[in-house]
Amino acid sequence: MRWFTPVFTVAIGLSLAACSPAEAPPADDAATPPASGSTEEQAPAPETPSTDAAPLPQVMHYDCEGTPVDATFDGRGQVSVAVDGATYVLRTEEAASGTKYVDDAGVVLWTRGAQDALLTRPDHPDRTCTGSPAAPV
């Protein structure tokens, strides 16, 4: 019985060590020092494109109970809404469901799902909207 406790402890320790994540390999972009005796400066490596490239804007054409509305979503939390000859820039606001875009003047475009939205403007009735994506250029 005296050998059981240490053996059991070692077995648990080895099991836990086997479950731990492996260390990440070193990054490939680490700069290598110039060869000894070399006085030449090396040209900097060309910049590689960022993987955080700006998202492409998405344009939706909405029919809001007979009122045409074009919305350009920038993919970064803003939408530009063109309606009745005016353009509004709205920003994302927290919503219980869907995505709600608002501005300080009280214009709201509240999207629900891929194609449905609600348009609210001061001094205008609220309008239920059905959208379709614009054809790619």
From TrEMBL:
Keywords tagged on the record: Lipoprotein, Membrane, Palmitate, Signal
- Cross-referenced PROSITE patterns, in alphabetical order? PROKAR_LIPOPROTEIN (PS51257)
Residues of the signal peptide = 1-24
Q: Where does the C-type lysozyme inhibitor domain lie?
A: 62-123
Which stretches are tagged as biased composition: Low complexity?
21-35
At the top level, the lineage of the source is Bacteria
InterPro entries linked to this entry = MliC, MliC_sf
Provide the residue span(s) of the region labelled Disordered: 21-58
Q: What is this protein called?
A: MliC family protein
The scientific name of the source species is Luteimonas flava
